[in-house]
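Title: Prediction job returns without error message
Component: structure pipeline
Severity: low
Priority: P3
Assignee: unassigned

Description:
Job completed but the reporter wants confirmation the result is attached to the right record. Sequence as submitted:
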Amino acid sequence: MSGLEESLYALDWNNNISVAIITLVSYDYMLQFEKEQRQRSIMTYMYLAVRYFGISIAMYVAAPTEPSLSDPALGGGLFYIPETVSYAMFLFFEWSFSVYFCLAEVILILRLYALYNRSKPILYVLLGLFLPVVALYIAIDAFLWSRPSSISMQEIIITPDIKYCTAVFHIGPMPAIYASIPIICYDIILLILAVAVLGKHLKERNELRMKPNAYVVMIVRYHVIYFVLNLATQIFMAILWANLPTPMMYLAQFFINTAPIIILPRLIISIWETHANENCVHVSTTFEDCICWASPQASEQHEMDCL
């Protein structure tokens, strides 16, 4: 395949993936919009931050960033963007994506805090361990994604009227892999804490011969889903540095720019939907989504812990 054919092939993949990202994220937003109408609380505001910040990142990536064409086109080429501006927009995306995942981690911390009966030691330990993770995200963005010696933008001219900018990786995937290990370890700690509280809950319910609280099971299940999702995202972001073939490169970008942005808000919405069908006589004023005691007449006499 000649250089011109290879560039056109990459351009075609970019346009198709960009259209797919815009379509999928927009469709999911329309499906979930009505479910967002609810009483405001801390978790609601966290949801709105994750939801709309994620949508803005996805649309920002899929629309004009790369490639940049002087001819209008769908997906990734709405208007021409010079090489220097493309690089600045690329950096903005990477930093924004780190902020997005930090917000997601905060939501998990709040849910664990409520699952452990609002235990201050648990909260302080998780926040104390989270601060180095935030520092690591900053270091990754500053020293891995923001250095021209690591990654740069290259303008490719197909014709005088069609040109685009693409990212060129100058180092291998190992630095990104090493940097992702502490983040994954922190997620493992969150997962262990969630599984531990579930194990204790199941043991207590078994001794009382009662059914497990559906909300405790649900929140732990979602911790597992988030762990798998974040693990996959870290892997895909690391292999982007490995000079993958064009189809694999764009499929990895498609996953990174859709799966976290769609799945994370749905994990919150699904809990709200289940909660809406319960008859609760008390809701915590601090975490209105997180603590709810069921009606005393309910056969299970269960609590809804952090949802």
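Comment from assignee: result matches the submitted record. The longest helix spans residues 174-207.
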